[in-house]
Amino acid sequence: MVQFLASTPGICRPSFPLHSLHKIATLAFSAVVGVFVHVPFFSVAKADSATRPNIIFILADDQGFGDVGALNPDSKIPTPNIDRIANEGMIFGDAHTSSSVCTPTRYSVLTGRYHWRTHLQKGVLGGFSKPLISQGRLTIASLLKRQGYTTAGIGKWHLGWDWPLKGGGAADDGGDFSKPYAKGWDVDYEGEIQNGPNDLGFDYFFGISASLDMPPYVFVRNRVPTQKATVEKAFQRKGPAGADFEAVDVLPTITEETVRFINEHADAPEPFFIYFPLNAPHTPIVPTEQWRGKSGINVYADFTMQVDATVGKVLDALDANDIVDETLIVFTTDNGCSPAAKIGELEAAGHDQNYIYRGHKADIYEGGHRVPFVVRWPGKVKPGSRTEHLVGQIDFLATAAEITGATIPADGAEDSVSFLPTLLGKADQSARNSIISQSIGGQFAIRDGQWKLCVCPGSGGWSRPRPGRDDMTDLPPMQLYDLASDPGEEKNLIALHPDRVAAMMAMLRKAIDDGRTTPGKQLANDVDVVMIKPLPPKPRAKR
């Protein structure tokens, strides 16, 4: 540990006085042993009795913690349907994504594995990207399918798949969506997609390949587009599109598809699982005419109200089919609110999109990865309950496994910990004491109880201090915050607690090196993971 700290660039800068290295190493070792063995960070509880509720997991896109009325008493955007889930179920006040952008979050949700164990070390995929989830990897869909569930994915995929090319092979934009993909018109839009949702445990898929501002602009049903891409359209970025495809229709269409699926499977003997990742309120921000102007604030607030109405239609379908009591439903989001929401306009109206938390989408700060997470399960979860137990979306797979009595293989869901005891009100403490998140640039943050260590200066994302735009050469190389007394991350305590910093760095190092954060044999990451990213270059002075 001493050797590691001494050889790590930036650790021994004057602003971070590492003194008494022997003491630090001792404390670090003790902390790692405590967190990784004694504290139930990696505990896996056993199910008292296996049950099989219907499960619906709704994942909104770019909606902030403060955009939900049940979480933000001063919210100016009405969300009565999301609030209904919270009021009839449980609010998780300390819930986190594994990343402050969407593709990595989706990977972690579906696999129970940290995304940074893959080749995706920063940013997101494009609409023509290769699959991020490897074939044979456990997903929540494949796990539940083995438990007798009918499984559906409806909405925005954004995890890559193999688009067939007319001349053979598969499309590959390399994750670079900054410019048009040269082979976008060489895709066989009547051919079958491989290595997508239907190959990862989903019996049924309907949706779009990536974000709605990334081509190709077509709906896909199972393996084939519902309409061939024959025209060029641009919902921010130009690319192949179906002649009838319009961005404004996507949220209503996937909502109708989800309601249809519920109606068709409500009376089936086997339970269903629906993974419902929305395209909204992400850009393009396109509420339907019914919702335009409804908020009285701006178009983002209108679109957020439409998202809530989508949730309401799902709840109505459960009511109409009389399956409320047999259904566990989750509402959460893939990261914090985006600057595309025109945050200044929201704040001028008195609305704090990420509540009391610093930053927003893309950032390492709480506003980037602390997200709404509300769960309703009648008869199991106490209505109107709230917990501050630390939880990650990455934990949903292990939770679903415990609920249904499934066994997780030794090489699956490597970072997923069941929060079922908390959900049922039977836990005195959180099942985990630590969680790891990343910014869009791949900068790490790790929690240890109330403490949070950001392994970088600045936001690591889009807010100030912003890498590559703001001069951060005089900032401490890392940031340590006590979230219990400073939830807004205003006071960097890095210079005051070198022993704690050393211990948390050791925790992060172990989590990376072990290839897992649950009990079991050491596993390999897909790539070498760089723990401390190089400082961004000092921006050039403007002339």
Automatic annotation (TrEMBL):
SUPFAM superfamilies linked: Alkaline phosphatase-like
Pfam families: Sulfatase
The organism's place on the tree of life at top rank: Bacteria
Domain Sulfatase N-terminal: 53-405
Keyword entries, A-Z: Calcium, Hydrolase, Metal-binding
GO molecular function: arylsulfatase activity; metal ion binding
Top enzyme category: hydrolase
EC number: 3.1.6.1
Family: Belongs to the sulfatase family.
Protein name: Arylsulfatase
Organism (species): Stieleria maiorica
